[in-house]
């Protein structure tokens, strides 16, 4: 019987184990945590967004510069395939109002429980608290909780160790140096889907931390994203911040600072705003004027003052400010607070089956590869898809 070693017990590793085991391969998964799928479970704590219902082209566009490499991979295990896989585990999915796809129970726990049961029935063995610490002459070295090391071998190996976000859940990026020593090109891991730092005045931060800027559009470097951005004590976070995260990082790398333009009323044109702001009554304060004319809330009004020092009295100037409030970003939050990471093993290092060219018989999947995507189901979809493709590549190598 052929054997396979899977290193990493997240979605990419577990789905690779499943694909291999279904073809009769004896699979052992080594995971450094006390139980597998820890990050998957935490990500689904408030509602497991498993994939997205977007059409293929806009869906693939979410992967930016990696879209071309990921296109055949996502096609090989598509959003519809993932939804059918969920249904097969007793968790049919539904499409939410935003187009995001969720399991019926809305949580990750029932899905993971059913999945681990299936893997056990397929004969997959999960070795917990076993940390991969390098290669030996004939296999891999793993280290247990007692720091004792041992050699493990498989006919093929699939690595799915994640990036470096949420290190307490197992993905700490410690694999990077080990791969680099073997000559594998690895782009530095960077925080993605992460909040940004803004030097708010103390009075603004004290009053509005935890308050959403609702229905806004954020723009940087020609990239725009809409949604609700959350004011934090140290900056901004939320979906639209994450969606333009790559552009923010590029600007920070180039200039050390990045100005994000916040459109507080993206549904209105500059002309429409100007016209509405002309209707100021003589006794209106600036706040009452903005609330009455364009329904601006206190956090939006205060953001205008935070950025400009005062509220312009000229309707045209005020409308222009409302459409592009400059917010200076000084940095991103650290990688340990990120939802995911950018960077990883360069695409040039793997073939179409995700096998490392320098290490025949060794495949990589998930966030170890150099791609990124916004939240909304795109992260999990690519993790599952790369896990399936890596496993199929391993099967081809075994002649299965």
Quick overview:
The chain has helices spanning 11-22, 38-43, 56-61, 67-76, 79-88, 109-121, 175-181, 202-208, 239-243, 245-255, 270-277, 286-294, 298-308, 315-323, 378-398, and strands at residues 3-7, 26-30, 51-52, 93-95, 100-103, 125-127, 131-135, 140-143, 149-152, 156-159, 186-192, 196-198, 212-220, 223-232, 235-237, 258-263, 325-332, 340-345, 362-364. It is an alpha+beta fold.
Major sheet summary line: 6 strands, antiparallel, barrel
Flag low-confidence runs: none
CATH superfamily of the largest domain: FAD/NAD(P)-binding domain
Strand content: 15-25%
In terms of structural class, how would the helical and strand content be classed?
alpha+beta
Identify the overall geometry. Answer: elongated
The rounded distance between the terminal residues' Cα atoms is 11 Å
CATH topology of the largest domain: FAD/NAD(P)-binding domain
Helix content: 25-40%
Q: Give the helix tally.
A: 15
Give the oligomeric state. single chain
| CATH architecture descriptor name of the largest domain | 3-Layer(bba) Sandwich
How many strands?
19
Strand order of the largest sheet: 12-15-14-13-16-17
The radius of gyration computed from the alpha-carbon positions, rounded to a whole number of angstroms, is: 24 Å
Q: What is the arithmetic mean of pLDDT?
A: 95
Count of all domains: 2
